[in-house]
Specification:
By secondary structure, the protein is an alpha/beta fold. The chain contains twelve helices and 18 strands. It is globular, with a radius of gyration of 23 Å. Bound molecules: N-carbamoyl-L-aspartate (NCD).
Length: 459
């Protein structure tokens, strides 16, 4: 039997699969009410542990327009979660005879990955903490594709809170894979997290280039601009002059604005006290922005002023409306009613299951820490030599200081060439040499004292 597919990360879909979904969404949008036979009788469960308007309602509308039904737990304070039930148990129950597909939103990073491990039906991630929001990305890419006819080579500004916006993270990975360029204009202090930049660089071949925002006018007035390009060879000559000085960005195709994700700030504080980026008629007056569509996943607060709503470049409400046909196509695909999936799914990064004594993900809001009884210690192996690993739930980089081999009971430094000979299933990850030795491992022969120091972070 074919393996059950889930949509946890935007990486779970190939470019061809995304394009097939766009084509189907366009076909659906031409006759939105004409598809009520396609998924007749199918039941979608929407489990939302965080607030939502568009995502939940558009999934529910999409299911009903396809002829299916919806069961929902939209306020988890009214569910058994308030009695202490784990996510894993809830998912096991709801994905039994209750529903054919599960849509989950949760405040912990990696929650959808955990749910997929326990579910008997496809799980679709509708946002897991500040990690990913792949279906919003499909809507965003679809909107860009409808507006511009293609994605490759587009220059897309990502503005606002790039640190905590999960929509930005999934969008950035997908844009890079489609060959679009990212112009990052973060709110000061809310730059893309290092683990996201690292993935863009190492998994998707994206190169960050210093750029000048002079031509971007007011949009870039309070922020450094970073240009990230997956185009090969990296077209440095386009963006830096002979003396290596950053050049202006000439022409932008889209500006994607985001809301300050205040609910994820450690202090619970508000960005309203400081001056937050605001986009309006004046900001969009720069010549380089004259053809740029303005996007926003919504909800917005003040980051796009209402005076811009009448500007034809503002497509954020159209973008939200397109969420229904996109999610209809997606649901039909995951319910097995249309054929969009590749015959051979692309191989994922190798995942290693760790033992209880090993290094855990350091991110406090990762599901592997909040749901400790049900989550394994799991690592994605990004590279074997030098060893680089990320948490398999939340993708956060894990700094390994010593790698044990369970067969020889020796430990190696993470940059040791000897690691080539250690198979992933024999490995054991520790924070440092001392921890490895406390667990009974001894230094591998040929080890030098310098290797005792944990490897510095790559970024
Ligand atoms: C986004 C989200 O929940 O991440 N909203 C949405 O799904 N359309 C963006 C946000 O809340 O800022």
């Amino acid at each position: 039997m074919a393996e059950l597919r889930h949509l946890v990360s935007i990486d779970d879909l190939s470019l061809a699969e995304m394009e097939a979904i766009f084509l189907k969404a366009r076909e659906i949008s031409e006759d939105l009410t004409g598809w009520s036979q396609l998924c007749q009788g199918a039941i979608t469960a929407t489990l939302f542990y965080e607030p939502s308007t568009r995502t939940r309602l558009s999934f529910e509308s999409a299911t009903q327009r396809l002829g299916g039904g919806v069961i929902t737990a939209a306020d988890m304070r009214n569910s058994s979660a308030s009695k202490g039930e784990s996510l894993a148990d809830t998912v096991r129950v709801v994905s039994s005879s209750y529903a054919d597909l599960l849509v989950l939103r949760h405040p912990s990073e990696g929650a959808a990955r955990l749910a997929a491990d326990y579910a008997g039906v496809p799980v679709i991630n509708a946002g897991d903490g500040s990690h990913e929001h792949p279906t919003q990305t499909l809507c965003d890419l679809y909107s860009l594709w409808v507006e511009h006819g293609h994605l490759e080579g587009l220059d897309v500004v990502l503005a606002g809170d790039l640190r905590y916006s999960r929509t930005i993270h999934s969008f950035a990975y997908a844009l890079a894979r489609f060959g679009a360029n990212l112009v990052c204009i973060p709110q000061h202090g809310f730059e893309l997290p290092p683990y996201v930049v690292k993935r863009l660089r190492e998994e998707f071949g994206v190169e960050p280039i210093r750029a000048s925002g002079k031509r971007l006018g007011d949009l870039a007035k309070s922020s450094d601009v970073v240009y990230l390009t997956p185009q090969k060879p990296h077209q440095l000559s386009l963006f830096t002059d002979a003396k290596g000085k950053a050049q202006d960005i000439q022409h932008v195709h889209a500006v994607y604005m985001t809301r300050p994700q205040t609910e994820r700030y450690a202090s619970g504080g508000s960005a309203e006290s400081e001056e937050y980026m605001q986009l309006g008629k004046n900001t969009m007056a720069a010549e380089s922005l004259k053809d740029a569509v303005v996007m926003h996943p919504l909800p917005r607060r003040d980051e796009i002023s209402a005076d811009f709503d009448s500007d034809p470049r503002g497509i954020y409400f159209k973008q939200a409306a397109r969420g229904v046909p996109v999610r209809m196509a997606l649901l039909a695909a995951f319910l097995g009613k249309i054929d969009v999936f590749d015959a051979e799914p692309k191989p994922a990064l190798e995942v290693r299951r760790g033992e209880k004594d090993e290094l855990r993900c350091p991110k406090e809001s990762c599901i592997s820490r909040t749901e400790i009884r049900h989550a394994d210690t799991k690592y994605k192996l990004i590279s074997r030599v030098p060893l680089q690993v990320a948490c398999a739930y939340c993708s956060h980089e894990i700094q390994v200081g010593a790698v044990g081999c369970r067969t020889t009971q020796e430990w190696h430094a993470p940059n040791s060439p000897q690691l080539k000979k250690v198979r992933p299933e024999e490995m054991a990850f520790f924070a440092d040499a001392q921890e490895a030795e406390d667990r009974g491992f001894r230094a591998a022969p040929g080890f030098s004292e310098a290797e005792r120091e944990p490897a510095p972070p790559v970024l």
